[in-house]
Amino acid sequence: MKEYVVAIVGATGAVGMKMTQLxxxxxxxxxxxxxxxxxxxxxKVVHFRGEEVTIxxxxxxxxxxxxxxxxxxxxxxxxxxxxxxIKHGAICIDNTSAFRMxxxxxxxxxxxxxxxxxxxxxxxxxxxxxxxQMVTALAPLRAxxxxxRIIVSTYQAVSGAGAAAIDELKKQSTTIINEKEVxxxxxxxxxxxxxxxxxxxxxxxxxxxxxxKMMNETKKIMELxxxxxxxxxxxxxxxxxxxxxxxxxFEQEGATVTDVQRLxxxxxxxxxxxxxxxxxxxxxxxxVDKKDVFVGRIRQDVDELKGFHLWIVSDNLVKGAAxxxxxxxxxxxxxxxx
Length: 338
Known about the structure:
The protein is α/β, with parallel strands linked by helices.
């Protein structure tokens, strides 16, 4: 059995630390783990599988001998170092938006389109966190009934904006409770006890870049360029766990709520929580540190028989980022692509 040299770029960030944790638990056989970061964090020591691993500065030469490199250090770092890692023979799994929509770069959610991994040219893109959880839930429904339209509103946790955003939420919450004046640095407005209908900057179309990511990435992953997708993305004062209200319209008639529940109950990577009689439905507080996508509140539209509403929740740092990346690495090995 081959042993692999694996590197994580951005190892000291929230997603990088999750990647390290998940790789420690992974069945992937590793000869060496290289944890990489900026010069500022280099030199720190992390325990991995019973050994001490010193964090190294991410430089081009450090990728010599690396088989798989996971990137989660920002788009600029990925654009600078991914080509260097590929030159040294590594297969790169990039968690940023730098290459997602590039032609010839597979954009992969293993439960949905793992066959796209075979087309890689040294680089595989990890989709946006909100896109990942939505397509994971919708893929089995699309396979059964076809899909014409998706309208999604997201309710996204502050951890998606980094550690500073979490700190800002906590600080503002205390400040407001103590009836003092609130200051905002990470977000344009106070996030505590509030919701902000803007994630990322605005495009000239009026949509935010986060919304456009969801719309465009969904079409690419599902290989449905004519699929109608509209998104509204909102930041909420939740630390971890993105929630989504999704309206999906099928191509075929005849589907029932029971049909949808039956498909999702056995779908890979999905946990069905849908029993109004017992108040069973997904909530972000219950999904923290869990790998699955949770689905509930399934209803048939009152006016459109081919339309259904779903509530979808997942840990944005786990399935929405780190776990999806580690899954890709595991599938590369399982499918004998590497």
